[in-house]
Design brief:
With 86 residues, this protein is mainly α. It has one domain. Helices cover 64% and strands 0% of the residues. The chain is built from 4 helices and no strands.
Length: 86
């Protein structure tokens, strides 16, 4: 799996990240995330792998917040970064 090199499979952090992505997909927040997810699934990506890729992008955005690079979560940038996954 995509994030195995970063997280232990049973990692609480990994599970929390997947839960965040599940909630974003359920709520379609940011608007359009569900469409991007479905597009990747239709291209043949495994659902778990897509969620892990989304988690990696999300963590990058959290990193920027924690290190003062951003003052607030940039939904537009985040969604565009997800769309860039090929």
């Amino acid at each position: 799996m995509f994030l195995k090199k970063f997280f232990n499979k049973k990692s609480d952090r990994r599970d929390a990240m997947i839960e965040i992505i599940d909630n974003q997909l359920k709520d379609n927040d940011p608007e359009g995330i569900t469409r991007v997810f479905e597009d990747l699934i239709n291209r043949g990506y495994d659902e778990t792998v897509v969620k892990e890729m989304f988690s990696a992008v999300f963590e990058g955005e959290i990193y920027k917040l924690n290190n003062g690079r951003n003052k607030e979560f940039d939904r537009e940038f985040y969604l565009n970064a997800l769309k860039a996954i090929k």
